[in-house]
Amino acid sequence: MGVGDVSKRILLGRKLRSAQLGETLLPKRIALPVFASDALSSVAYAPDEVFIMLAIAGATQYVWSWKIAVAVAIVMAAVIASYRQTVHAYPSGGGDYEVATVNLGRTAGMVVGSSLLVDYVLTVAVSISSGAQYAAAAIPTFQHHEATVATVMVLLLMAMNLRGIRESGAFFAVPTYLFMFAILGMCAYGFGEMAFGTLPMAESADLDITPVEGWEQPLTTVGLVILLARAFSSGCAALTGVEAISNGVPAFKRPKSQNAATTLLLLGMIAITMMVSVIVLAKQMGLRYVDPHPEHLARLTRNGVPVPEGYDQHTVIAQIARAVFHDFSPGFYFVVTVTGIILVLAANTAFNGFPVLGSILAKDGFAPRAFGARGDRLAYSNGIVFLALASIVLIVAFDAETTKLIQLYIVGVFVSFNLSQLGMIRHWTRLLTTETDPGERRRMVRSRVINAIGLSFTAVVLVVVLLTKFLAGAWITILAMAFFFAVMKGIKGHYDKVEGELAADEEDSILPTRVHAIVLVSKLHKPTLRALAFAKATRPNALEGVYVSIDQKDTARLLEDWDDRNTGIPLKVLHSPYREVVKPIVEYAAAIRRANPRGVVAVYIPEYVVGRWWEQFLHNQTALRLKGRLLFSPGVMVISVPYQLRSSEIALEREQREEQRVRPGDLRRGRVSDRPDRQTRK
To answer: Cβ(556)–Cβ(567) under 8 Å?
Structure first.
């Protein structure tokens, strides 16, 4: 095994056979943290965004915070109920894309596909950037290097997911459950203190907030509606990640759709409880929170005096935890630590959803077919790598600032929400036209009502999001969706065009009238003689050796050796005054083809086979360039004639040792004997 193979095995683990795909399926206890970490992690930043938006008009508007939390919770409940219908109706894993494509047409499916691709990339960028901000707050060394820290986190997540969904899920399950325990425990303790009248105030409760310029006067009805709409749209970031389960149904153990629906229900109950609890507690504790940008931090005042420059404003959860656990510091550090970890792991939801969606798009011809190929660990490796690279580009471009990235968020996911719910309504309506069983009809009507309610809620949210976030950065998301849509359409058009060109017809069975074979000669050595012998064995109509002359002495020596060898094959010498090798051969082959348009030219190229990676750079470079040029020449066939050098035996022995190596589990599977004298593969 070479250095590259060893490194790959250390990074990814041993290869898995296609038949072992069933071993990678997830039980509900693992699927919940795998697919729900994104939606659950939004508790760490969605409340922050609600308070930031309300703070525009001053702290007096915080009275609306719990009402906004309830509104977001109602929308989330409706969306979760709708997606429970989706996972039962479309358990193949296509999710919103499949629903829209089947019921609304290919264009709608492409819109959903492009919106989800953008949303998955933003999920990684936002979650990792938020995690990097937490890390910088805890470790001063990371301050002003958040983008670098975030990039490293993305690469680590990519490596984990390349090992397979089950391995990454088992690794991430513990932190996710710890996060649930930490937030729910903190909120329960806080509500207990509130019940006994001992709930402490937050560290920022004694601060005042100066309204943003233009919002100082008492709000009119229109102004209040605009403010609440902005806060509501920011709070709806809590809904991102809900759709991931509908795209990941194939990863569940059987019964797949039932397990997925149960996981969705658990996700909804936990996420709603956590988000509403955090916002209510923050409001009761008098918490103050503004945009962390220095310009907005200056709006925080204490007794009319702005806070000092460089004031460290802790996040909403951090302030609640510090106050609730004022006499138990380990509780505070536990909450803050697991929150920072879950923000990083939240991106894992996208790393599970994006590759599956990419594989489905690839199957339908809307994405490169490489996205549909499984890697050594049966994960869609190309999709995982692409997602990581795209996320890193966003993180670097926005310097890992969550406040900037959050404005691009949720537009794409609500576009897919709306089209998916509309598609499900069409789905139930179509089935009702043929269903006669009264029980089934009642079930379908109930499901259609649920999807209709979901559509009405998500449509309102989409309009609010577009109106409040378009100029703040949502236009970038829409532009990115349009870009992905155009790329997908171009890829589909290319594949359709290629398929049309490759369709077999009667002309493909016509034999060429003449085969003119040429063997490329650099020296008269064993590789050349082997190529000449192989070409002669194919019995072409004409056969000749071709040599490009760039040095008179070398040419004379070769001609002398050729005459002495007496191969019986003529040698054509192409003179190249400008010392070019590739161009004269290409032009000569083209000239032969023009002389006989119905014939073919067979070009035999002797090549060395080496065993060490660095030897590839020392041999076959001219042959590679020549093949690259000849591939564009119509009527020219390129045949490589390999000659194995001794170093190639190293690679062969390496492969044989790998095949004979006893791997973990081989004895249990019966692939090796348990007798000491028979430790070989059967």
So the answer is: no
In the block, tokens 């007794």 appear at 303
Contact status, residue 263 vs residue 88, Cβ threshold 8 Å: no
Residues 6 or more apart whose Cβ sits within 8 Å of residue 639? 535, 602, 603, 604, 605
pLDDT at 487 over 70: yes
- Is there a contact between 240 and 413 (Cβ–Cβ < 8 Å)? yes
Amino acid type, 651: A
Which runs of consecutive H residues, i.e. helices, occur in 285-380?
A: 294-297, 316-324, 329-345, 347-363
pTM: 0.72
The answer to whether residues 552 and 577 touch, using CB atoms and an 8 Å cutoff, is no
Gap between the Cα atoms of 230 and 478, Å rounded: 18
Would you state the pLDDT for residue 325? 92
Q: What are the tens digits of pLDDT across the range 551-598? A: 899 999 999 999 998 888 999 999 988 888 899 999 999 999 999 988
User: Using omega within 30 degrees of 0 as the cis cutoff, is the peptide bond preceding 33 cis?
Assistant: no
Structure token digits, residue 295:
């310009």
Angle at 164 between CA 160 and CA 166, to 5 degrees: 105
459 has pLDDT over 70: yes
DSSP string, 234-288: HHGGGGTTTTHHHH-GGGBPSSHHHHHHHHHHHHHHHHHHHHHHHHHHHHHTT--
User: Are 454 and 82 a contacting pair, CB within 8 Å?
Assistant: yes
State mean pLDDT over 192-205: 93
Task: Please tell me the distance from the alpha carbon of residue 602 to that of residue 1, in angstroms, as a whole number.
Answer: 37
- State mean pLDDT over 600-623: 85
Reading the block at residue 607, the tokens are: 């090549």
Nearest Cα neighbor of 254 from 97, 96, 91 is 91
Give dist(CA 260, CA 246) in Å, integer. Answer: 7
User: pLDDT (tens digit, 9 = 90+) per residue, 656-673?
Assistant: 665 555 555 555 555 555
Sheet holding 542-549, edge to edge: 571-575, 542-549, 515-520, 600-609, 636-644
**What confidence category does residue 138 fall into, taking pLDDT thresholds of 50, 70 and 90?**
low
Residue 5 tokens read as 């193979």
> What number is the average pLDDT over the span 475-496?
91
**CB burial class (10 A; 0-12, 13-18, 19+) of residue 115?**
buried
| Domains defined along the chain, listed by start | 30-492 (1.20.1740.10), 508-645 (3.40.50)
HSE-up (13 A, CA, CB side) for residue 250: 14
Strands ordered across the beta sheet of 305-306? 208-209, 300-302, 305-306
